[in-house]
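Today's session is about reading a structure prediction critically. Students often jump straight to the picture, but the first step is always the sequence itself: look for stretches that repeat, for charged clusters, for runs of hydrophobic residues. Only then move on to the predicted structure, which in these notes is written as discrete structure tokens rather than atom positions. Here is the chain we will use throughout the hour.
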Amino acid sequence: MQIFDTHCHYNLSPLLENWQQHQQTATSAGVKKSLIVGTNLASSRQALEIVADNNSSLYAAIGIHPTEAMAIEDFDQTLQELTALTEVAQVKAIGEIGLDFYRLATSLDPITEIQKQEQLFIRQLELATRLQLPIVLHVRDQAETAYLRALELYHRYASNHQQAVIFHCVSGPTTYLEKALALPNSYFGFDGNLTFKNASNIREIFTLVQKRHPEKILLETDAPYLAPEPHRGKVCEPAMIALTAAFAAANLGADLEQIYHNSLQVFDLLS
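Below is the predicted structure for this chain, in token form.
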């Protein structure tokens, strides 16, 4: 079994402190390659430090997560620093970026937070388009607002984008998913929650994508988050993606070789 973990966080605690051991364990479980994804400038830089000596197995995505938007004081300076990081050859995507309205109800200033999230998202969409790098898209909401707004901004600011857009830890309403599937360069990342007993909606999405576009399915861990069954609620080890892969193959008819090929293709690693 060959696996490409297309979204993990060796650059975040508690994995960061002993990432080499975590990677060795993952390699033993069949993980051939991993994409380490940034959530802010610091974790993006950390991702680049980790991949520096792992040219053939570890790659990086650099970006600023939408929930970091309120902490940014100078957008121009922040985007300049982020752009400088893209000069490293192992940077294969911009992400994770997007919109996250899931906890806006508890925000001290929800209107300003939405505005700043959108501004940050737009600037990073423009960066990805300019560099022709894939986008790792994070969208989360208790309603459908963020999902549809994210697609609207994608179409407006990345309409000529020829590279991929990866719907990380995919979820959302049917209207959103149908529009996402229709995009020519869309891919869909499935995580350990695919195995959760109460996650029939995620399995329905997997089945929908597999039926129409099996070439668009990716597997992720989002480690240290979203550990699959039977480890739900624990720290997700990157090696646990093997459990998700086995579940998808046994219960959902997933073709793991096809998925591995998809993963190489999305990051332009096919030789």
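Discussion point for the tutorial: The chain has a mean pLDDT of 96.
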